[in-house]
Amino acid sequence: MTALAALIRRDIKIALRVGGGALIGVLFFLTVVVLMPFAVGPDLAQLSRLGPAILWLGALLASLLTLDRLFMADHEDGSLDLITMSRTPLELACAAKALAHWLAAGLPLIVATPVLGLLLNLDMVATGAVALTLLAGTPALTFTGMIGAALAVTLHRGGLLMAVLVLPLSIPVLIFGVAASQAAITGPSSFGAPFSILCALSLVSLVIGPFAAAASLKHGLD
Amino acid sequence: MSLIDLANPTRFLALSARVLPWLAAATIILLTIGLYQSALAPDDYQQGATVKIMFIHVPNAWLSMFVWGVMSVASLGTLVWRHPLADVAAKAAAPIGASFTFLALLTGSLWGRPMWGTYWEWDARLTSVLILFLMYLGLMALWRAVEDPSRAARAAAVLTLVGALNLPIIKFSVDWWNTLHQPASVMRMGGSTLDKAFLVPLLVMAVAFTLLFVTLHVAAMRNEILRRRVRSLQMMQASRVAFSSEAGSGSRQENASKGVA
User: Fold this and answer.
1) Are B174 and B125 in contact (CB under 8 A)?
2) Which residue of A has its CA nearest to B162?
3) Which of B134, B135, B154 sits opposite A219 (nearest CB)?
4) Using a CB-CB distance cutoff of 8 angstroms, which residues of chain A are in contact with residue B141?
5) Membrane-crossing residues (chain A) (predicted)?
6) Is A154 in contact with B137 (Cβ distance < 8 A)?
7) Residue B48 and which of A24, A54, B27, B80 are 20 to 30 A apart at CA?
8) What's the CA gap between B184 and B170, in Å, rounded?
9) What three-state secondary structure class fits B1?
10) A219 contacts in chain B (CB < 8 Å)
């Protein structure tokens, strides 16, 4: 347990300090959202209608951007081999690393959402709904993305391939995340149904992600 | 002759060489019967002659999921039992499955134009099959990204098993989200709702397409085994050349290294 706690603390520290690049994700998220009015036009009514989708897409791309750091830096300096060989089960170590990554890179995205919602003319309820769905859905993005990151770390220049492999897996999360936040803002349909499916997706990925990532690390690194 | 005997690629090559002509012949015969029956099938009272697209479209759609199922079983064989032919089977199946998926999408959109008035609709079944197609392409890219075949096999096996989660989503998408695509009518609880005049040709075509897949798959597996043999022969030769030049005169080696630099 102490080993896992130490791993989480170390990963968060590295991510937040120079060269870690966790907060770059927030900057990227901001840039995507700022670009949108240039693409779809500055009409505020239209922007507030598209708002949840834009925020979700931005968060998805931002979390994808930071994901390849998850194992890559550790692979380069050799600490990934130590983690693989340690007595802690690799599945738990993977889960701890993903948790640390989510705390350092995923949580800031959710914190940034209210500010970005302001830019997109979303009201309080809508912003709250989007932030809540992001809180429920981004763990799923991190834990499924971890599979792609683990596959990519064994390849040379796996970054672009990782995006291709991970994006199809993240489509259900995107669908139900946007559906839930739209339902909270406009819809006659209920918020509960898509939101509980979103939570279920996160829980499922919490189970599958570490096992698949650990399997591909075990088989890929020898 | 059990499955474990097939683990020897040489035995597999010998056996498949004998079986392959029979498989191909059976495929051709069944396809001919199926196409003949489909041509003779009556027009639908609502859809007219376009209903005949079904006899191509539905087998392709079934096969697109079936091939991923075969690949998942083969991936289990790679990861759990380390069966030497399992990764050959998984690799050979991917392009075939991608083709079936592409044909299912293509015939589906050609059928959709006269029936629904649109080539494409962001409906649950269509979207999930499109995702399946993207995953086939990603998997093929992964196979090509790793140089060493056995390492590529294990990476691809993990991805295949994760991607298998998409199969039940596709199967039940028409029941869960009731959108444009019609719900299941052949394989459902309480028997098929399809009329016998359509059901018989459809089932014949489904069996024929499955045989077509088996034939293509066995042939592709043979190619893959031979390709790997060529690769290992080339590597052996390369190492022999490197060894002999090392054993040769030092000055020649120096010149060679200068030339490379």
Assistant:
1) yes
2) A212
3) B154
4) 161, 164-165
5) 21-41, 53-71, 92-120, 126-153, 160-185, 191-217
6) no
7) B27
8) 11
9) coil
10) 79, 151, 154-155, 157-158
Contact A154 B135 (CB under 8 A): no
The stretch A106-122 carries a mean pLDDT of 87
| A192-211 pLDDT tens trace | 888 888 899 899 999 999 99
Model pLDDT, residue B255: 46
Interface TM-score (ipTM) > 0.95: no
Nearest to B65 by CA among B222, B218, B220, B210: B210
Asked if B158 lies within 8 A of A171 by C-beta distance, the reply is no
- B62 phi-psi bin (left φ>0, alpha ψ -120 to 50, beta other): alpha
Containing B218, the helix (H) or strand (E) segment is: helix B196-247
What residues contact residue B75 under an 8 Å CB cut-off, 6+ apart? B86, B90, B156, B157, B158, B160, B161
Interface test with B, best of A219, A221, A222 (most B CBs within 10 A): A219
Distance (Å, rounded) from C-alpha B130 to C-alpha A38?
A: 30
| Structure-token pair, residue A208 | 């599958």
Yes or no, beta carbons of B131 and A168 under 8 Å apart: yes
Let me know: does B161 contact B72? Beta carbons within 8 Å.
Answer: yes
Query: HSE on the CB side for B188, CA within 13 Å?
Result: 12
Interface residues from chain A to B (CB-CB < 8 Å): 144, 147, 151, 154-155, 158, 161, 164-165, 167-169, 171-172, 208, 212, 215-216, 219-220
Of B131, B141, B151, the CB nearest to A161: B141
pLDDT of amino acid A148: 87
Give me Rg for the CA atoms of chain B. Answer: 23
At a CB cut-off of 8 Å and minimum separation 6, what does B55 contact? Answer: B34, B35, B38, B41, B201, B202, B205
Q: Please, which residues have CB within 8 angstroms of residue A63's CB and are 6 or more apart in sequence?
A: A25, A105, A106, A109, A138, A141, A142, A145
Cβ contact A215–B155 (<8 Å)? no
Which of B162, B170, B173 to probe by mutation at the A interface, max A CB count within 10 Å? B162
Mean pLDDT of A79-99: 87
Beta-bridge mates of residue B48: B44
Q: Find out whether A149 and A160 touch, Cβ atoms under 8 Å.
A: no
For B44, the 3-state DSSP assignment is strand
Copy the structure tokens of residue B64. 């697109």
- 3-state SS class at A20: coil
- Label residue A119 by pLDDT band (50, 70, 90): confident
**Minimal Cβ distance to A161: which of B127, B145, B163:** B145
